[in-house]
Description:
Elements: H1 2-11, H2 14-19, E1 24-27, E2 45-49, E3 54-58
Antiparallel strand pairs: 1-2, 2-3
Amino acid sequence: ALKAKVRLLDAFDYRGVLRRGYALVWSADETRLVQRGAGLVPPDEVTIQFQDARAVAAIRSVKAAREEEKP
């Protein structure tokens, strides 16, 4: 029972997502996650969190997702 609960907690750990190759995009001051690209405008800066490092990036352009790419 305890092992099952530990596995469940591990499933909710965002670091597992990073280990699978995804990245998190943070505001420049790293206080909030960027959830929508449409709110970004050049020359906004963001911090991209990978499994092994963080990188600061400047937004050069933003293009809306095509309809078939939207969730």
